[in-house]
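Suppose a colleague, Dr. K., hands you the sequence of a protein chain of 223 amino acids and asks what its three-dimensional shape might be. Before reaching for any lab equipment, you can write down a predicted structure in token form. Begin with the sequence itself:
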Amino acid sequence: MMLSKAKFLALIAVLSLLIVAPVQAGVLNNHALAFNNGAGPAGGAWTGSDVFNNGLPFPNNLIGNIDFSVFEVADFDTAFPGSGYVPGAGDGLVYAYQLENQGNFFVSAQIVGISNIANAIDNFPSGAVAPVEVAPGVSIFDTGGNAVWLFSAQNIQTGENSTILVYSSPNVPELGTGLGITVDGGTVGITTVPTPSSTAIPEPGTVALLGIGMIGLMTRRRR
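The predicted structure, expressed as tokens, is then:
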């Protein structure tokens, strides 16, 4: 029996919704150990998830999530013991991302625009049993300093994730200037992710001194 044009279009719409249905959140989204300086998107913490989308309907859709968390180095080691990742010397923060492909196109590259200091780009498996995680064949900073992970040797297929994509920085995060660009099928999907700002993370001694100074100022005002 042949379907009418209206029923056929309705069926396509339902199938497209099923194909891009959200997958289970990854290990980075809303991570309890994420760096919290009061300025992050999750109650002050730098953790969450954002959608990348090329804006095209099925079967030309490139869509999915990028989960992210920024960690202080000690908390990163607690969250991912045995990851093998070594941050840059003197860097206090680790920036971590994981791509989840929910669209019809496979993914061949992930690029994060970086304007400030970043070091030691790499990746490692999250340790999750499912879904399948694909490691990039190349993890580099390009000539502009942007973080680039290339999956051209083994693309990320529909329903698969990337491994955890990481680099380190001495600078605190900002949201909105750094873009995540997911590439394939001759198209791109763009999302907003945290990247290093131009402000260095305060040293513990500096924070303590600031706290002592504030206590002294409050004491003076009470006298």
